[in-house]
Amino acid sequence: MRRLLLLILVAALGWSGSWFISAQGVEKNTLRWFESRQKAGWIVSYSDFNLHGFPNRFDLTFTDLNLADPATGWAWKSDFFQLFMLRYNSNHLIAVWAPEQQLATPIANLRLSNTDMRASLVLQSLKTLALDRSSFVIKDPVLLSADQSGVQADMVSLAIQRQDALSNSYKIALSAKGLGPLATTRNQIDPQALLPRHMQLLKADLTVEFDRPWDRSALETQRPQPTVIDLHLAEAAWGALALKVTGQLKIDAAGWPKGEITIKASQWRNILNFARTTGKMPEPVFNLIEKALQFIARLKGQDSSLELTLSLKQQQVFLGPLTIGPAPRFKLR
Q: Do 16 and 56 touch, CB atoms closer than 8 A?
């Protein structure tokens, strides 16, 4: 019995001692990464850093974290950020974000609030941080821009899975519950309050192929760029409005798409009217598009519903021979 107790004591001491040794390595590598970002020109600051979790986890907590990359125009501020790692499965991480965050992008400054925001990440390698799969959930998000416009939702979920170990192709599933515009935005797009406050449905299922994997280099040096987007199905329902979109696009090195998108829409006139209120397209163009869509709908004998195919090429979007406008550019900074 004494010998057994001694073996248990030695094993416990060895496990405990190895935790402290490993914890020192985790802390050293983490702080070294922040130092490397500073040397690369980033703005990096935090008021406190703690590592806990003895004896089976490594729990990293940053307080008042501020990360900014002036070269790309991206910046992020958060009251805290936590990263949890199981000692016996270091490739599986859990990330937890603060209820209040600020995000600066090349096109807008945003404020994000939530009641719970976390992600599970499974990596192929802790050294390269190559993503194998991830699931992300945010509850009660409110995304607010500087002009007080924005959106809110009950919950948004995102799942990403790499197709195989050698592929740069990722399967992506996105869904949102209770998604709707904030009051300021709602007054702009639906001043007569004809639609419900929230969408009944918003989800998308797609596969995206990139020119390189999503790993630590994606954050440190250059973002992977999409080369193929296969949209299996995107659906949205808001009151009487319903929209389904499928299609496949090939993206060139400059980020311009080429391919076809098929759109099925009910109450398409109302959808067009909402697009008109944004003021992003001249009124004569809207009138021309409306007449063309009306002609197509009547050809199929369904005046309120519509199915059409848009062609994207030469940096433009075409409806048959009609040029609708510039194509979106898929370029990640």
A: no
For residue 66, with 0-12 CB atoms within 10 Å meaning exposed, 13-18 middle and 19 or more buried, which class applies? middle
With a threshold of 0.90, does the pTM exceed it? no
Question: What residue spans of the chain are helical by DSSP H?
Answer: 2-39, 183-189, 216-220, 268-277, 283-299
110-158 pLDDT, tens per residue? 999 999 999 999 998 878 889 999 999 999 999 999 888 899 999 999 9
Sign of CA dihedral 33, 36, 38, 42: negative
Looking up tokens 């309120």 gives 304
DSSP 8-state symbol, 276: H
CA gyration radius, the chain? 25
Contacts of 225 (CB under 8 A, 6+ apart): 210, 211, 212, 251, 253, 255, 330, 331, 332
Which sign, positive or negative, has the C-alpha torsion 88, 92, 98, 101? Answer: positive
- Per the CB < 8 A criterion, the answer to whether 173 and 158 are in contact is yes
Quote the CA–CA distance of 130 and 108 in Å, as a whole number.
29
Q: Are 96 and 65 in contact (CB under 8 A)?
A: no
Distance CA 240, CA 200 (A): 10
In contact, 106 and 74? CB cutoff 8 Å: yes
Q: Quick check: 227 and 209 in contact, CB under 8 A?
A: yes
CB 109 within 8 A of CB 103: yes
